[in-house]
Amino acid sequence: MLRVIVRRLLWFLPVFCLVTGITFVTMHSLPGGPFDKEKTPPALVEQMEAVFGLDRPLHEQYLTWLGNVVRLRFGPSLASRGRPVESFLLPGLSVSAQLGMWAMLFGLLIGLPAGIVAALGHGTWLDHGATFVAILGVSIPAIVLGPLLYWLFGLELGWLPVAKWAELSDGIVPYFKHALLPAITLGAGISAMLARLTRASLLQVLHEDYIRVAHAKGLAPRVVTTRHALRNALIPVVTYLGPLTAAVLTGSLVVEQIFAIPGMGRYFVTSISSRDYPTVMAVVVIYSVIIVAANLGVDIVYVFLDPRRRDAS
Amino acid sequence: MSSSTHADATQADSAQSDLDLSSAPRRTRGLWRDTARYLLHDPLVVACVLYIATLVVVSVFPDTIAPLSYEQTSFRDKLLSPGSIATSEKLAGHRFLLGSDRLGRDILSRLVYGTRVSIAVAFIGSAVSFLIGVGYGLVSGYSSARIDNLMMRLVDVVYGYPTLILVILLQVYLTGISQQEAGQTTGLQRVVIGLDNRTGGLFFVFVAVGAVSWLNMARLTRGQVMHFRDQEFVQAAYAVGVPDRLILWRHLLPNVLGPCIVAGTLAIPTYIYTEAFLSFIGLGVQPPMPSWGGMISKGYGAMRSAPHLIFPPALALFLTMLAFNFLGDAVRDAMDPRIRHR
After folding, report:
1. How confident is the model over A223-241, as a mean pLDDT?
2. Where are the alpha helices (DSSP H) in chain B?
3. Which among A23, A48, A16 is positioned nearest to A35, based on CA atoms?
4. Within a domain: residue A114?
5. How far is A254 from chain B (nearest CA, A)?
6. Taking CB atoms and an 8 Å limit, are B314 and A151 in contact across chains?
């Protein structure tokens, strides 16, 4: 077990260096720099670039940056007058994380039961209904669902505020009022994907021989479903949580754009166009670390869920 | 199951042709014919196919179908509601079936031209994922462990990025390069930039979508090849001295193709969405070239005052993704004999 984790972590190092290295070179080779403005004299631009070390050779800059990142220092932002990148990315990350968490919760609470109900009632109208709603859910993209919810609940009915974000310190009701539409926009696709996956996986398990054996032993159908079928059917669902985390990350990038939420994704898009290298790099680092951590967590949970794996390692 | 039938048939062709002459060709075509017959029985699938076919026709002949050009502006006909008649002399008598936007352009016409972008992206994404993805997966799965390892690690590195971030970075890079002064670019770059300008930014979107579309397919194909390469029919072919190239082409590819077609169809909505999102945040197709994502973005900004701007492109995008998802699901069910005969 430990060996698997260590090997995975060691493998992460070269991938990390390559991913950040490619991003670094790409960003720096873009025409235009962070201080290029129409009215700034070239001499001043050069001076500014020297202050932030942008005149040094690229590999030297990258190594300096890498050394700082190891010590968890992401450097000063070039767009907002030398403020450390952490000072505004961390609040953004917290907002994005909350949004992602609510969306995932929404997805799990709707998707899992829907998938289970559909599989247990295979071929009935419940199954057809759930399958149909699920395919609608995976087909409606955030840039369509977001505006639709905004129009319906924000403008036509006027029930919920549109855009922006409220902190928990502003009160629980305003917080959830602000979080509801973005969370549903992001969570709808997740719940639909989970429902489809759960249904397919449970249907497959229900046709296995050991389920027939359990029935033949005279076990109550409820026990067979929960103890025998569901436990095994959820293994692929758990494995899917890794890619799902990635989907939530990129999805929140979209949803933050739509609802003007001050999350991390918004900083990413704006920092690319303003050539704010440290911010771009920090966001890429945070994204890759989250994805790797999620996949690693899934691998570990997987070993515990599947006895065959446990014995093998 | 389906694939092993096929494998037997392929093998039957070469090894035991005198025994099985009458049934072998019939069985070879069985899978595809069964799939098609199963698909055409479902009215929903037929509806999806017809809808997609309509989109393809529309995207090939937008000039004859659209009532106006997509860049025909008319400042006296700004933000007209659907169904109103033009007030300017220039467009006298023209009826704006879906209304007009803030520059007085006909929304229906822009929708029609936007179809071209979505369909083109769907086509390019699929083409790249089949040509590069399947090819890469075949070679990687059939090569020695060392080469296979190397090829898959390359895929892993690209996987380290969230797809959308990679696409955004690529797109920013490409457009950034294209804005360089003419003196700094090489000949090849100039050709590519010219191509991109002439297609209204579409070419770079193709590159960005293509760059990520083949990854999943490569992984899937490799897994399938690993599954089949140790089976008897491949070993037998190898034993009688069939060259590797032919083993890949005649024996492995036909067996691998089924799951790839399913995955390929189900991936099409992702390509369409990637382009729509890029255009939504202003990194995709460049104005005045219309794209559904760009139209949604413009309509979203004016939702309070002119809600008729956003609904046509949003509905078109949703229906198109839905049709491809339905089709993908149906193809998957049709190719799975366990479901088909239930």
Report:
1. 85
2. 2-14, 24-41, 43-60, 62-65, 107-128, 135-142, 145-159, 163-178, 187-198, 202-229, 232-239, 244-246, 253-280, 292-301, 311-335, 337-340
3. A48
4. yes
5. 8
6. no
Provide the whole-model pTM: 0.84
pLDDT band at residue B180 under the 50/70/90 scheme:
low
Give chain B positions within 8 Å (CB) of A143. 276-277, 280, 293, 296-297, 300, 314, 317
Residues of A in contact with B156 (CB under 8 A): 15
Whether B55 is covered by a domain: the verdict is yes
Nearest to B59 by CA among B109, B98, B110, B113: B113
pLDDT in tens, A284-301: 888 888 888 887 888 778
Q: What confidence category does residue B184 fall into, taking pLDDT thresholds of 50, 70 and 90?
A: low
Q: What domain range includes position B325?
A: 33-70+105-340
In a domain, B130, yes or no: yes
pLDDT tens-digit map of A92-116 = 888 888 899 999 999 999 999 999 9
- Judged by average pLDDT, the poorest of A217-231, B196-210, B241-255 is B196-210
Structural domain boundaries enclosing A199: 88-272
CB pairs under 8 A between A and B: 106
- The structural domain count of chain B equals 1
Domain for residue A102, yes or no?
yes
Question: What number is the average pLDDT over the span A135-149?
Answer: 90
* Of B261, B204, B304, residue with least CA distance to B32: B261
Reported as a single tens digit per residue, the pLDDT across B82-107 is: 777 777 777 666 777 777 777 778 88
Any bridge partners for residue B85, and if so which?
A: B95
What is the CATH classification number for the domain harbouring B133?
1.10.3720.10
Residue B11: what pLDDT?
A: 45
Contacts of B162 in chain A (CB under 8 A): 246, 249-250, 287, 291
* Domain total in chain A: 1
Q: Does residue A74 register a pLDDT over 90?
A: no
In a domain, A133, yes or no: yes
- For residue A275, CA distances in Å to A80, A87, B101, B201, B215 come to 12, 18, 33, 21, 29
Please name the residue that has the structure tokens 């070179």.
Answer: A25
Confirm whether B8 is domain-assigned.
no
Asked if the structure places residue B246 within a domain, the reply is yes
The verdict on residue A192 lying in a domain is yes
What are the start-end ranges of the H helices in A52-171?
Answer: 58-70, 85-120, 125-139, 142-149
